[in-house]
Design a protein that fits this description.
The protein is an alpha/beta fold. The chain is 45% helix and 12% strand. The chain folds into 2 domains: 30 residues; 191 residues, Rossmann fold, CATH 3.40.50.1110. It has 7 helices and 7 strands. The chain is globular and about 45 Å long. The termini are far apart.
Length: 225
């Protein structure tokens, strides 16, 4: 009987040791600066947490799917200028094979056309706006010169409030596509969410990505990158 208890004790110690080893390795892997990682920068397209129920946010799901290898710095409501503070939050020891997803510009457009009630047929403002956008991209490249950058375009909303801005969105997206196509700009790809989030159920509160839309976006990211 004495040997039986010794055997049980040894077995328990072995189980605890294996469990600790697996947990330690999992923790170490999740925070290893030399491992692949996603970084999310920009606005609510990548950080829709306040618009969906707990556990349904895009960054939350993506972090789960990547086993803790997603760093979400995107902030709801961010404009182009706000991304600089997000870039400053990127750890200096971040790995050199990071993939960065940038979604910004939509709130700048909303502020100009919707909040200030400017004429949607006049798209001249997009030129200086996109110049500011390019400077943000260059700031990212300066901070992480070896990172792969994926730009997100803007989706089209078919509700009455926003459908009249389709022309503006189209012009903005064309600027993104042309910029990314130029090899000297070192953009890996454009993630065309305009072709992913297309149905009413993909959105909540008229304009934000819903939990359904969020899953679709995460699925596309995981399948493509």
């Amino acid at each position: 009987m004495q040997y039986f208890y010794i055997y049980i004790l040894i077995l328990l110690c072995f189980i605890v040791a294996v469990s600790y080893w697996n947990t330690y390795n999992s923790f170490k892997e999740s925070f290893n600066p030399d491992s692949d990682m996603f970084i999310l920068l920009g606005d609510s397209i990548l950080q829709n947490g306040i618009w969906v129920s707990e556990g349904k946010a895009i960054d939350y799901i993506l972090n789960e799917r990547t086993k803790g290898k997603t760093l979400s710095l995107a902030v709801d409501g961010s404009k182009i200028v706000d991304v600089y503070s997000q870039i400053n939050e990127i750890p200096s020891n971040i790995n050199k094979i990071t993939r960065i997803f940038l979604s910004v510009g939509g709130n700048d457009i909303l502020y100009h056309y919707v909040e200030n009630n400017n004429d949607p047929t006049n798209t001249d403002v997009l030129i200086p706006m996109f110049s500011a956008y390019k400077k943000v991209v260059q700031a990212i490249q300066s901070k992480l010169p070896n990172a792969n950058i994926v730009l997100l375009d803007l989706y089209y909303l078919d509700n009455l409030k926003y459908s009249k801005y389709h022309n503006v969105i189209g012009k903005w997206n064309d600027l993104i596509y042309k910029y990314a196509e130029d090899k000297k700009n070192n953009i890996e790809a454009v993630l065309k969410i305009s072709e992913i989030l297309t149905k009413p159920e993909d959105f909540t509160f008229d304009i934000e990505p819903s939990s359904i839309g969020g899953v679709k976006l995460v699925n596309e990211i995981m399948e493509s990158y």
